[in-house]
Amino acid sequence: MVGRILGSVAIAATLVAGGWSGARAEEIRIGSVVSSTGPASLLGDPQKRTLEMLVEDINAKGGIKGNKLKLVLYDDGGDANAARTFATRLAEEDKVAVVIGGSTTGTTMAMAPVFEDAEIPFMSFAGAIQVIKPVRKWVFKTPHTDLMACEKIFTDLNARKLSKVAFLSGTDGFGKSMRDQCVAAAPKFGIEVVHEETYGPRDADMTPQLTNIKNKAGVQAIIIPGIGQGPAIGVRNYKQLAIAVPLYVSHGVASKEFIALAGEGAEGVRLPAAALLLGEKLAADDPQRPVVLDYTKAYEKKTGQPVSGFGGFAYDGFMIVAEAMKRAPSNKPAAIRDEIEKTKGFVGVDGIYNMSPQDHMGLDLSGFRMVEIRKGDWVAVP
């Protein structure tokens, strides 16, 4: 089996004064399956670290209503079959009250039916719109959708008076979904797709595909829908081929590790991203600034690593669930699910969330910022 058990963070349940009606405190078991190793480790590793950090912090402060948390965490290695196996284990053996995880669209979609059948709320970190459209009663997510990423990119292309694009799309779940969403949305923005190429999750060179794009007449911009290391390889090859047209990537690469992997090719690349990437550059009156800076400081102090957008998905997901558990009348999965769905005005690092029975993400396009990579850092595009 791909993946391995990562272990758990726990403090034994004890009698805690101030608990619910003086009752014996419970251990609330939170499940998670992330891709902390393998081709999607760029996403899963900061998510794992974030979840461990947050559980440790809440337990150190007395837990939730006096109830300590136990994080049951598995690594699926980016493999959808392993993810489904771990999901079944969480539901049938570990008896978790809620699940927070799913680093990729593929692993999320493999796990979602398990948690739907088991009636356990599942907060995903995957980007594809299919995670929450159509709405599934027990499934939620924190990242902006791939459709929203397309809309943000197309809006920027319109501002630059560019209309003819080429795609170099990943064949993974997110890459395929974002490509489909972009192609469907393009006419609304006056965008014409003049050429398409694809790459596989383990491709180590994309020079042939990008050479085809370079030689295609009329291409004014390139878009690379994808996650993990693939887009970084494409960006490096783009630089090596000295392609002159602008390049866009998705929010599926929102980390300093992507910039390091892409090297000099990252200079000038644009992407839609969360406020988290801008940190101190956010305006003093930006409502997200305090939470962005608090999470960034805590994460970097705890791990010694730069904060990443993928860890931010985990931060928002965990905190939304934690707030729901504080409001819930019990620790039962159904009670937690109902309160997650009632989330209103939650200020996270990815935006301000307002969920409902019709919307299990709760973000709008205002949560996205267009950023450009300059000298190894993120800069807001006016």
TrEMBL record:
<dbReference type="InterPro" id="IPR051010">
    <property type="entry name" value="BCAA_transport"/>
</dbReference>
<protein>
    <submittedName>
        <fullName>ABC transporter substrate-binding protein</fullName>
    </submittedName>
</protein>
<keyword id="KW-0732">Signal</keyword>
<dbReference type="InterPro" id="IPR000709">
    <property type="entry name" value="Leu_Ile_Val-bd"/>
</dbReference>
<dbReference type="Pfam" id="PF13458">
    <property type="entry name" value="Peripla_BP_6"/>
</dbReference>
<keyword id="KW-0029">Amino-acid transport</keyword>
<dbReference type="GO" id="GO:0006865">
    <property type="term" value="P:amino acid transport"/>
</dbReference>
<feature type="domain" description="Leucine-binding protein">
    <location>
        <begin position="27"/>
        <end position="362"/>
    </location>
</feature>
<dbReference type="InterPro" id="IPR028082">
    <property type="entry name" value="Peripla_BP_I"/>
</dbReference>
<keyword id="KW-0813">Transport</keyword>
<dbReference type="InterPro" id="IPR028081">
    <property type="entry name" value="Leu-bd"/>
</dbReference>
<comment type="similarity">
    <text>Belongs to the leucine-binding protein family.</text>
</comment>
